[in-house]
Amino acid sequence: MHSSSDPAATPAADSAADSDPRASQAGAWARGALGLAQASFAPASADASFRRYFRLRSGAQSWIVMDAPPQQEDCRPFVRVAGLLQAAGLHVPAILAQDLDQGFLLLSDLGTQTLLDVLDAGNADAMFGDAIDALIAWQRASRPQVLPEYDEALLRRELQLFPDWYLERHLGLALDSAARRALEDAFRQLIDAALAQPAVYVHRDYMPRNLMFSRPNPGVLDFQDAVYGPLAYDPISLFKDAFLSWPASRVEWGLRTYHNRAEAAGLPVPPWPQFRIDCDWIGLQRHLKILGVFARLTLRDGKPKYLADTPRFVRYVMDVLPDYPELKPLAVLFERQVLPRLGAAP
Q1: pLDDT by residue (tens digit) across 247-257?
Q2: Which CATH fold topology does 2-108 show?
């Protein structure tokens, strides 16, 4: 999960970077790649992974430097997916220089404002319309056996984050055998539903915080984890946002707009009633995963700010579960064990 900000590039910012040997190394590499003797260098954004981003400025020009320590991150998927997105006609950062062994990329700068920064009720139709059109262009470019598959193993690994990190470590729940059976049954149904969907390219975090307000709009970031999998994953991610909740009417408008345009574009979308169910079910898989991810970011990685958004995902889960009686045991687990530990309704 990526967020953009733009601290002023000041001498203090440069000295802070210089006090960090790796940041200093990244700055020197980027200046060398551009043939610049001098350029200001300051943090540009926060990220939930080990990746960091810096903004290099020289006069009116600016560039982004990605620092992805090779022992923890691999730049190669970013480079590969950037090429796929660009070939599909999407606006992504151009890769101007790369040193994959050191884990450095020099990128074009798509600006300082994300859609999350600028979205409001007055411009949401236009902003989301642009995001939907870009998503459809990405999905239309899909081909099997190009990206890793969003297969059963990956779906299950993601779902397991929910009991391991959110329930047990964060909430301190000791799950009994009945609760474990309820989870396993729900996971089996969610995985089967995901694998039954038509498969397309999936960004995996397609939401306003990872979309830049730019020309052409939007610029797309944070795509290195892209896979080939369930068609409804990115549409529901766009409207059931990790950091911003929309009224149900906006969510329905967005999903219908996507469905209508995707159908017209020849994508393999099922009829609306089935697509809406697909959105709910793959949305549940994502919501449970993110509860686990945000708990892990806090407890393992020392990034507690993400935990403040976990109640949003509990709400998302509780909005959907009553509509699906086959998931009743999961609803009971939330009602009896999760909600009481939150102190109040999320």
Answers
A1: 999 999 999 99
A2: Phosphorylase Kinase; domain 1 (3.30.200)
